[in-house]
Structures are given as structure tokens and as C-alpha cells.
């Protein structure tokens, strides 16, 4: 992939056995938003060993890859995961912006980041 940097591949290995326990990577992408092209990275979080999942390794890896990408003056990313969602995430509305807005507001309300009465 053109533009990738080796420091954008970050892994955690066991000290004694050398086994790969966790891995995260950033791949450069150019994403077109309406008529503007924006440089972004695609973050691919491949694995975390089952015993480390309760140790909060994933947020540490995400912060580290974010720091490394920000050093290259790229401040936006798309996160990917190989997870199958159990039900549809999006319903069809009259305007696509409305669907996007509703999904964001629903997640904000769910996580208590904004009260219901302040959402416009």
C-alpha cells in the first residue's frame, strides 16, 4: 500500500515465548467526503489474546497507534473490525443525513454523553 509506514504496525509479544499477543495496524487511505479528499488511516485491530482482553490492552494499543499516526499530521481514522453485527444497524430514512444523525444521537444518549433535552 503506497504511503504506509513501518511504525504504523504495532504488536505486543510475550517476553518469554515471543508469541504475538496483540496487533494493531494503520493503513493510509484517501477518503472523499462530498467534493473534498481527506487523508485518513484505516485502523485494523487484528487480535488480542483471550487472557489479555480483561487487562484493557485494546485501549492502550488504540492510543499508541493514534499517537503514531498523529505524528504524521493525520488526525482522522476509520476503524474496522471483523465482527458480524446481529441485527441491522441502519434503517432507511427520507434523507441519509437524518439516519446518520439519529445513529450518533442514539449512541450519545446510550453512553450518557448528552442529555435528551439538549439534543437538537
Automatic annotation (TrEMBL):
<feature type="domain" description="Glycylpeptide N-tetradecanoyltransferase N-terminal">
    <location>
        <begin position="2"/>
        <end position="89"/>
    </location>
</feature>
<dbReference type="InterPro" id="IPR022678">
    <property type="entry name" value="NMT_CS"/>
</dbReference>
<dbReference type="Pfam" id="PF01233">
    <property type="entry name" value="NMT"/>
</dbReference>
<dbReference type="GO" id="GO:0005737">
    <property type="term" value="C:cytoplasm"/>
</dbReference>
<keyword id="KW-0012">Acyltransferase</keyword>
<keyword id="KW-0808">Transferase</keyword>
<dbReference type="InterPro" id="IPR000903">
    <property type="entry name" value="NMT"/>
</dbReference>
<dbReference type="InterPro" id="IPR016181">
    <property type="entry name" value="Acyl_CoA_acyltransferase"/>
</dbReference>
<protein>
    <recommendedName>
        <fullName>glycylpeptide N-tetradecanoyltransferase</fullName>
        <ecNumber>2.3.1.97</ecNumber>
    </recommendedName>
</protein>
<dbReference type="GO" id="GO:0004379">
    <property type="term" value="F:glycylpeptide N-tetradecanoyltransferase activity"/>
</dbReference>
<dbReference type="InterPro" id="IPR022676">
    <property type="entry name" value="NMT_N"/>
</dbReference>
<comment type="similarity">
    <text>Belongs to the NMT family.</text>
</comment>
Amino acid at each position: 500500500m503506497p504511503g504506509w509506514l513501518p511504525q504504523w504496525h504495532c504488536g505486543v509479544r510475550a517476553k518469554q515465548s515471543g508469541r504475538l499477543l496483540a496487533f494493531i495496524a494503520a493503513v493510509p487511505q484517501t477518503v472523499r467526503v462530498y467534493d473534498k479528499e481527506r487523508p485518513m488511516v484505516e485502523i485494523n485491530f487484528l487480535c488480542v489474546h483471550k487472557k489479555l482482553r480483561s487487562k484493557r490492552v485494546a485501549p492502550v494499543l488504540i492510543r499508541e497507534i493514534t499517537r503514531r499516526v498523529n505524528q504524521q499530521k493525520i488526525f482522522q481514522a476509520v476503524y474496522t473490525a471483523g465482527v458480524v453485527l446481529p441485527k441491522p444497524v441502519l434503517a432507511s430514512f427520507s434523507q441519509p443525513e437524518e439516519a446518520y444523525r439519529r445513529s450518533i444521537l442514539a449512541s450519545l444518549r446510550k453512553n450518557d454523553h448528552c442529555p435528551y433535552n439538549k439534543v437538537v
